[in-house]
Amino acid sequence: MRGGVQAETLVVLSAWSHELANELQVISGYLQLGQPTAALERTFEVAARLRRLDRLLTLKAPGFALALLTERSRAKGSGVVLELEIDSDLAGVPPEDEPALALAVADLLRAAVTRASGSDNPALSLVVAEDSAGYHFRLSGAKADSGVVWPRVMP
After folding, report:
1. Is this structure's pTM higher than 0.90?
2. Across all residues in the chain, what is the average pLDDT?
3. Domains parsed from the chain with CATH numbers
4. What share of the chain is helix, strand, coil (3-state, %, to 5)?
5. How confident is the model at residue 10 (pLDDT cuts 50, 70, 90)?
């Protein structure tokens, strides 16, 4: 791909920008129709998604964060909603391990998106968490119930 990471980043940012613009149009429509309660509810939903995005953007593994955003955009292109719940900043992932971790989780997501795209409710959720054993990436939703555990490297 020409531009590599920069081009990939622009595609992801463009998708987010487009999604946010669409949401603002929906909110505007509710207001124009005299439905302020629906507009407020939608505003709260959008704000919650933006908080999740902010949590993703503060990960200490930026390449991994970009991989998640890229896979989320790919899932959406396949008609699959991929929600990301980030409960760890991945601060303990050594920089040299980040590409392999990103690839492992991206492979997990791609396989799940392929299975989910033909289901009645094509929605997936990826939870990123950690405990003393390591980092956990749990995937649930349409035709998916799997995960990856990445051992924590102790200093």
Report:
1. no
2. 86
3. 1-57 (1.10.287), 61-155 (3.30.565.10)
4. 55, 20, 25
5. confident
